[in-house]
Amino acid sequence: MAAQPPAHPVAAPVSAPVAVSIGPRPEPVHTIAVYAFDGMAPFELGVVVEVFALARPELTGLLATPWYGLKVCADRPGTPLTAVGGFSITAHHGLDELAAADTVIVVAVPNTFSGEVSPGLVAALRTAHERGARIVSICSGAFALAAAGLLDGREATTHWRYAELLQQRYPLVKVNPDVLYVDHGSVLTSAGSAAGIDLCLHLVRSDHGAKVANTVARRFVVPPHRAGGQAQFIEAAVRPVKEEDDGIGRSMQWALDHLSTPLTITQLARAARMSDRSYLRHFTARNGTSPMRWVITQRIAASLPLLETPDGTVEEIATAVGFESAATFRHHFGRTMRTSPTAYRRAFGRGVA
């Protein structure tokens, strides 16, 4: 007689959970969203795309965390947007994705003088800021941040052409027209055009360290670091200056060659073959900053790759780059980098415990 099936299904014996190895969880990519609109000039948008979206095989082995993921966002995703120069682009992401990004960059607004800022963009900026995202503007993009109330009570900058208008329209903003960029940590603003390159490289430096930022700058064929406090407008020589007659350039190279030693205005002026007063005037007109402020910036820049290695104490590095004491080094480093040398080393040092 054939065996009859049981009246009720018999549950299979419960087995122990099976452990499955899936490997380490990958770190999330830092998402950057940039705002695009109809009629925009393409330069600043191109800078953001170039810095954050370009494939970078030159960074192989240098990155401790993943590179960025970029999304170009618009009020109406999928709709072609005209650009100055007679071509168009299409942004495939909307403002909801902009509001959800880790860093939001506004490179401009459609009409600076009319005061119109997209209500959707304003709402997205407020949402992103409340989430803790980093909010960045380049050129007239500062007007969007100001419209969202993100610059109230803060120092901020924009293109020098728009500085007075920004101050008139948003009196709670402390507009500084004389700097390349201003960093408040969660909110950053920059002047126009090439200052956007400086700010983008500053973001890379803050996230990944000086060596990575310098590598990006090298491919960009731009100086690796211009301090945010440098003047926007620099008087240019009316005629080309022959290299052998370029006293300012000669003195700057001499200073870089002697960075570890005490430097004075008189020494720099002597290297330029000028009087102290004439040297100060010509240096500031050419570089947009004073000689000693420039020297301090170069010393800070020289300290960054040293801090990224485990060799040498902070005191030894301070001496190596020409600061008279570790306390002076820490003071100027904090003002320039908005962190301490020790914290910078902890964040970006290779092989540093």
UniProtKB/TrEMBL annotation:
Classification via InterPro entries: Class_I_gatase-like (IPR029062), DJ-1/PfpI (IPR002818), Homeodomain-like_sf (IPR009057), HTH_AraC (IPR018060), HTH_AraC-typ_CS (IPR018062), INH-QAR (IPR052158)
A Pfam family reported for this protein in Swiss-Prot or TrEMBL: HTH_18
Membrane-crossing residue ranges in chain numbering: none
Keywords for the protein's UniProt record, in alphabetical order: DNA-binding, Transcription, Transcription regulation
Domain HTH araC/xylS-type residues, every copy: 249-347
Gene3D superfamilies: 3.40.50.880, Homeodomain-like (1.10.10.60)
Superkingdom in the source lineage: Bacteria
Molecular function in Gene Ontology: DNA-binding transcription factor activity; sequence-specific DNA binding
Protein name, UniProt field: AraC family transcriptional activator FtrA
